[in-house]
């Protein structure tokens, strides 16, 4: 039984470390990266993200508490709840992965036309203009497919960041 406890403690510690790492990377990608703001269908309050928030919260505290208490007390009920929670989270994470596999394909296929439509707001919408200039400066590129995107009839001004890069 001692090795069983050690195994649960080790798994909980590794799970907690991986959840913290995942949260750091997720925060960097979803909150701090300005490119996410260009895609309007990628809001932080969509149902798949809400599930992810709940799962991360569960994996970063509740799961470890149930597992460690069950291992410490050798409580069969708590250990069964621990394994059930792990199984439910595994199924939920797998379903979420399949969902994002298809959603990513849809976002990727719609992204280029969406960006070209959004480029019409360049120069008129100051918030979008600042966002677009920041993205172009950071990635040393201009336009959706190149600087010629600014030659469209509805775009009257070539971006400051495009001029700097040219």
TrEMBL record:
Pfam families: Tetraspanin. Keywords: Membrane, Transmembrane, Transmembrane helix. It is found in: Membrane. GO terms for cellular component: membrane. The chain crosses the membrane at residues 6-31, 51-75, 81-102. It is a multi-pass membrane protein. The keyword Hydrolase does not apply. This is Tetraspanin. It comes from Ranatra chinensis.
């Amino acid at each position: 039984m001692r090795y069983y406890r050690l195994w649960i403690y080790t798994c909980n510690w590794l799970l907690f470390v991986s959840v913290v790492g995942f949260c750091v990377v997720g925060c960097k990608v979803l909150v701090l990266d300005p490119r996410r703001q260009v895609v309007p269908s990628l809001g932080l309050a969509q149902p798949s993200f809400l599930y992810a928030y709940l799962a991360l919260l569960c994996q970063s505290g509740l799961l470890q508490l149930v597992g460690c208490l069950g291992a410490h007390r050798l409580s069969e009920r708590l250990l069964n709840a621990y394994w059930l929670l792990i199984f439910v989270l595994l199924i939920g994470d797998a379903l979420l992965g399949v969902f994002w596999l298809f959603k990513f394909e849809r976002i990727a296929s719609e992204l280029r036309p969406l960006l070209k439509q959004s480029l019409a707001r360049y120069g008129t919408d100051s918030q979008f203009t600042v966002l677009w200039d920041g993205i172009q400066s950071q990635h040393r590129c201009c336009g959706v497919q190149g600087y010629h995107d600014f030659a469209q009839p509805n775009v009257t001004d070539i971006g400051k960041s495009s001029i700097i890069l040219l």
